[in-house]
Write a structure and sequence with these properties.
The complex is a heterodimer.
Chain A: E1 5-8, E2 11-14, H1 33-55, H2 57-80, H3 91-101, H4 111-122, H5 137-148, H6 150-153, E3 173-175, E4 178-179, H7 182-190, H8 196-203, H9 206-214, H10 226-238, H11 245-264, H12 272-277, H13 281-288, H14 299-319, H15 326-344, H16 354-357
Antiparallel strand pairs in A: 1-2, 3-4
Helix pairs in contact in A: 1-2, 1-3, 1-10, 2-3, 2-4, 3-4, 3-5, 4-5, 5-15, 7-8, 10-13, 11-13, 11-14, 14-15
Chain B: E1 29-31, E2 38-41, E3 51-52, E4 59-60, E5 65-68, E6 77-78, E7 83-92, E8 98-106, H1 125-134, H2 147-150, E9 161-166, H3 175-182, H4 184-198, E10 202-208, H5 212-220, E11 228-233, H6 242-250, E12 265-269, H7 270-281, E13 288-294, E14 302-307, H8 312-318, E15 326-331, E16 338-339, E17 353-358, H9 375-379, H10 386-394, H11 398-403, H12 414-418, H13 425-453
Parallel strand pairs in B: 1-14, 9-10, 9-12, 10-11, 13-17
Antiparallel strand pairs in B: 2-8, 3-5, 4-7, 5-6, 7-8, 13-14, 15-16, 15-17
Helix pairs in contact in B: 1-4, 3-4, 3-5, 4-7, 10-13
Chain lengths: 358, 454
């Protein structure tokens, strides 16, 4: 029974000492951090499903371990740091999923706690928890692991269907646990001028494009399926949880830049469609570069940010030492975010542009 | 729902909250019965509170002046009924601070003092303006700025457009809507009176497109005859904010820190228009207004013509009292209204609504860390950066807040409405504005002192 009323005469009026007296607005849209995080998790379910379909239960194990360790570390660190409820906002669970999607499905189990510590501990809680981290926590972990365990982190298992001889990428399977990714194959091919054109055209055939779209190929367990990532990405765009400027500028810049390089020197790198569909570009462009905390706040800033990511990714893929550059590009642009924010800040309504003031 | 609208210029940002107007929109305006006591707050207007003319024991007529203006930006105050001044007292005002008030005990006759009518069409603009000033008119949309002052811009400002604000973009409120559909001719006549005072030919009424019948009624009531254009406007909060309304209707941008008159505009609320028509044509001073008493926790929401000095408790009783589970009582709308702490606070000239909200629907703020989602940046109609600005305030860097245009915030609440971190952004900006105001005053004083020495 509600009892905060008293009867004055025959009328039911509230007790005034129980009235809330906070500042306007007195109504709220209902948005919350937890709702945002849960929605992004839902948007990642297609990619998680694709990972399990193509790499088997090893993928599921990696996802569950990463989530469990990330939430555990968030909980423990939060308790020690006086923020015991941090884990409840689901952001650690989301980071766990993103971390897993950035790992090969068959990584040893102990990679997961180390990655979780790098992501949640070093990448996030050390700065003060959600909202204060300058870098995308999952990518801090990924790059940390890449530096700490370079061999492990660049060994990829073939997808389950690749043992079939009819699979277009079957020739790159070395054994049950080792296989080169398309980007890796391309990087190696660049160093062998005699065969480079054949390899590039095999990587850019229509049937291999279909493989890239589906995601039935080696790579991080959540990055391979373009279709699954696009499904989730469209959901986030429709709900306006991410700015379209980031993925469009990111993917667009990669397409244009690699297209230009490929046009002038076809032996330097495969064509733009190959670059767009392979590696971690879709995962990065829709789910990592769009991380709210570490990307710009304005739409103009998001365009600059996305274009910068695309530019750096292409530079690394074509001329850098690594076959893939999505993670590095996002981390570098994360560092530039405060500056981008400053230069793309809105001018208030009714203020003249500087040129007009002169 | 999408409504067709006439304007093609849209202000940046804004939000689209559930308007909840259906609770009271179909309720005709009703006159409240005479109470046994009215407690009229003396300082109801922006600017100097008026100076009292009565003392305890005086008898007054309805409409008799009980306080006179105390300066240029001030208005007189009139008695809501005939009776005796039974006390000069202090009550809790709408801002939650104590306010001095005149308690009037009615004699039951409700007798008007002698009212001076004016034929506004033959009178000079100066006579009309004097009449408006004498009737104690203030902006009835909520700001309570003296109307006569708004109608007397400095000679250097050329006014060519009069805008009548019928947007009523605040959710829940339907007082202006009922006024427009029940007595559209009063609104139009008031607008024409304002235009005459200003010497303006272009008059536009802006109505949010979710009130198509109000647009229709105004047009049918002879808007053309008065030379008034009635425009339906895109439904988006805060369409009724002065600067956003002017922009939507004329494409003119009021400069930051400036006033509508800087772009040749004067904006008046439809309620103020109706009050002006009564003041000039019938000689009635402003002693009552239409207030929407609404919310899911009101037994029978409705629109009431309430006299100044009516306690909130009495207004609620007119509506059959409240249901259980009340969390908040707001004077005004849910976006910009003021939370009330006393049911003895009384209706003022600016009281557009009494809103009663339940626990499950009232905003709960938590001030979690900003996650830089940028939703506030997307919605701020003043095109500020609310998130970063709130961080400056939290760190008490009011110098930075000033540099980043905190003073341009109009406290519309759009940012706080969408914030997933539930940050009390309006609270932060109100604080920033107060601190910056004090800083500026100190700076000016410092400069003056220096100037004195040099």
């Amino acid at each position: 029974m509600e009892t905060n009323s008293e009867v004055k005469g025959s009328m039911n009026l509230p007790k005034q000492e129980e009235l809330l007296a906070s500042v306007s607005p007195h109504i709220h849209s209902g948005a919350s951090i937890r709702k945002i995080m849960l929605t992004v998790i839902v948007a990642l379910l297609p990619a998680c499903t694709a990972g399990v379909l193509f790499f088997g239960l090893a993928a599921l194990k990696t996802i569950l371990l990463c989530v469990a360790f990330c939430v555990a570390i968030e909980w423990i660190w939060g308790r020690l740091d006086g923020r015991p409820d941090d884990w409840k906002d689901m952001s650690a669970a989301l980071t766990g999923i993103l971390l897993a999607l950035n790992l090969a499905a068959n990584v040893p189990w102990w990679i997961c706690p180390i990655g979780a510590f790098l992501a949640i501990g070093i990448g996030k809680q050390l700065y003060g928890g959600i909202g204060y981290n300058p870098f995308n926590p999952a990518l801090v972990a990924r790059v940390g692991l890449l530096i700490g365990f370079p061999k492990l982190m660049t060994t990829w298992m073939p997808s389950l269907n690749m043992s079939s001889a009819s699979h277009p990428l079957n020739q790159y399977v070395l054994d049950a646990t080792t296989c080169a990714t398309p980007l890796g194959v391309a990087k190696t091919a660049m160093t062998r001028p005699d065969t480079v054109n054949d390899v590039f055209s095999a990587l850019s055939a229509p049937e291999t494009y279909m493989v890239y779209l589906k995601g039935d190929m080696p790579g991080c367990l959540g990055e391979t399926s373009v279709i699954a990532l696009l499904l989730g990405g469209i959901l986030l765009l429709a709900l306006r949880l991410i700015k379209w400027q980031v993925p469009v500028a990111f993917i667009g810049t990669v397409a244009v830049f690699t297209g230009i390089v490929h046009y002038f020197n076809p032996a330097a790198t495969p064509g733009p469609i190959f670059h767009v569909l392979t590696g971690g570009l879709f995962l990065g462009a829709f789910f990592m570069a769009t991380d709210m905390v570490t990307s710009p706040m304005t739409n103009r800033g998001a365009l600059v940010f996305g274009a910068g990511c695309g530019l750096i990714t292409t530079l690394i893929r074509v001329w850098g030492g690594y076959p893939e550059g999505v993670s590095f590009s996002i981390l570098i642009m994360n560092a530039l975010t405060p500056m981008i924010d400053r230069y793309t800040a809105h001018r208030p309504f009714g203020t003249r542009k500087k040129t007009e003031e002169k | 729902m999408n409504f067709a609208h006439d304007n093609h210029i849209y202000f940046y940002g804004g939000i689209h909250p559930d308007d909840s107007k259906a609770l009271s929109a179909s309720e005709a305006i009703k006159d409240a019965p005479l109470l046994d006591k009215y407690t009229v707050i003396v300082g109801q207007n922006i600017g100097a509170p008026p100076k009292l003319l009565v003392k305890k024991g005086d008898t007054v007529k309805k409409g008799q002046k009980i306080a006179e203006p105390a300066g240029f930006v001030s208005v007189p105050l009139h008695s809501p009924t005939s009776g005796t001044v039974s006390a000069l007292t202090d009550i809790v005002g709408v801002f939650g601070t104590m306010a001095s008030a005149v308690e009037i005990t009615p004699d039951g006759k409700d007798e008007f003092c002698e009212l001076q009518k004016l034929d506004w069409e033959t009178a000079t603009p100066e006579q009309v303006l004097a009449k408006i000033a004498d009737a104690g008119l203030v902006g009835m949309g909520g700001a309570a700025f003296p109307t006569a002052v708004k109608l007397s811009p400095p000679k250097t400002k050329k006014i060519d457009v009069l805008i009548i604000n019928g947007a009523e973009c605040e959710p829940y409120l339907t007082a202006d809507y009922r006024l427009m559909i029940e007595t559209p001719e009063r609104v139009l006549r008031g607008a024409a009176i304002f235009a005459k005072v200003l010497g303006v030919k272009t008059i536009m009424v802006g109505v949010e497109a979710n009130k198509p019948d109000a647009v229709e009624k105004l047009r049918n009531a002879g808007a053309d005859k008065f030379g008034i254009e009635v425009k339906s406007l895109r439904v988006r909060y805060p369409q009724g904010a002065e600067k956003q309304l002017i922009y939507a209707l004329t494409g003119r941008k009021v400069p930051a820190g400036g006033l509508p008159m800087d772009v040749g505009c004067v904006v008046q609320n439809v309620g103020t228009c109706a009050a002006a028509a009564d003041a000039v044509c019938e000689g009635k001073p402003l002693i009552e207004r239409v207030t929407t008493v609404t919310g899911s926790k009101v037994a029978r929401p409705g629109n009431w013509r309430l006299r100044l000095g009516t306690p909130i408790s009495k207004a609620l009783e007119l509506c059959g009292g409240c249901k259980d589970g009340v969390a908040k009582i707001v004077s005004g709308g849910p976006m910009m209204g003021l939370a009330q702490i006393s049911l003895d606070t009384t209706i003022m000239k600016s009281s557009s609504g009494i809103l009663v909200l339940g626990r499950d629907e009232v905003a709960q703020y938590a001030n979690q860390p900003c996650i830089r989602c940028g939703k506030c940046v997307d919605t701020c109609p003043m095109e500020l950066m609310p998130g970063p600005l709130s961080l400056y305030v939290e760190n008490e860097r009011f110098d930075l807040a000033e540099k980043e245009h905190a003073m341009d915030c109009m406290e519309c609440g759009s940012c706080a409405f969408v914030c997933p971190s539930r940050r009390p952004l309006v609270q932060h900006f109100k604080r920033a504005k107060a601190e910056i105001g004090a800083m500026r005053k100190a700076r000016a004083a410092g400069a003056a002192a220096k100037g004195g020495k040099g």
